[in-house]
């Protein structure tokens, strides 16, 4: 069609049509549409970070919480518990450096934090046996099964949780909070909650 048009209208028309259609490549309108779509789609920067904040966003391997939402933390094959220094002394933290908490409403290794509670206080989940970092007493580590079958890491028979209000490692904004029907505490490597 262009050859017929070029011979009847001339070279100037051919150049004009070629530039309007984008030449041999994709038409410019298609490029513009793709560019617009790219700018309209959400970027990962606008998503919550995968680790908290520990409440960060979805990442491969994330597990649903009992509320049907995605867990803010990816579920590692072998979750690791470590020890960090804090103003409360040595406390347990996740592999990501975020503070771990116990809930005084939990009895033995039975979690009681679900739904909205589990959004604010995401459980530390694992697929296999949790791993002990330096200074963590390995035989105090265990797991509890949550209502939907996920394995939650326990320490000295206390289920472990993150706090969504801790945006960075080294924060412990959940210490002593009274939420979801009970109090929350950081926990020491001896397995006891720290109340100071």
From TrEMBL:
| Signal peptide limits | 1-20
InterPro entries (UniProt xref): Lipoprotein_repeat
Source organism, top-level taxon: Bacteria
Alphabetical keyword list: Signal
One Pfam family for this entry, by name? Lipoprotein_15
Q: Where is this region: Disordered?
A: 24-77, 166-196
- Record-linked PROSITE patterns: PROKAR_LIPOPROTEIN
| The keyword Signal is annotated on this UniProt entry | yes
Q: Indicate what this protein is called per its UniProt record.
A: Lipoprotein
What's the source species for this entry? Sphaerisporangium dianthi
């Amino acid at each position: 069609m262009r050859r017929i048009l070029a011979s009847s209208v001339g070279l100037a028309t051919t150049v004009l049509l070629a530039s309007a259609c984008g030449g041999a490549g994709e038409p410019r309108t298609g490029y513009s549409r793709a560019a617009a779509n790219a700018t309209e789609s959400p970027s990962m920067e606008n998503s919550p970070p995968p680790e908290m904040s520990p409440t960060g966003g979805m990442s491969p391997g994330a597990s649903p919480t009992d509320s049907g939402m995605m867990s803010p933390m990816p579920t590692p094959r072998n979750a690791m518990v470590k020890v960090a220094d804090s103003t409360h002394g040595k406390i347990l933290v996740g592999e990501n450096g975020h503070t771990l908490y116990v809930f005084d409403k939990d009895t033995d290794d039975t979690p009681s934090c679900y739904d909205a509670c589990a959004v604010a206080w995401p459980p530390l989940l694992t697929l296999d046996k949790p791993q002990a970092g330096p200074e963590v007493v390995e035989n105090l580590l265990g797991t509890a099964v949550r209502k939907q079958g996920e394995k939650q890491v326990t320490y000295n028979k206390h289920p472990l949780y993150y706090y969504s209000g801790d945006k960075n490692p080294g924060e412990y904004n959940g210490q002593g909070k009274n939420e979801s029907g009970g109090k929350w505490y950081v926990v020491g490597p001896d397995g006891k909650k720290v109340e100071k």
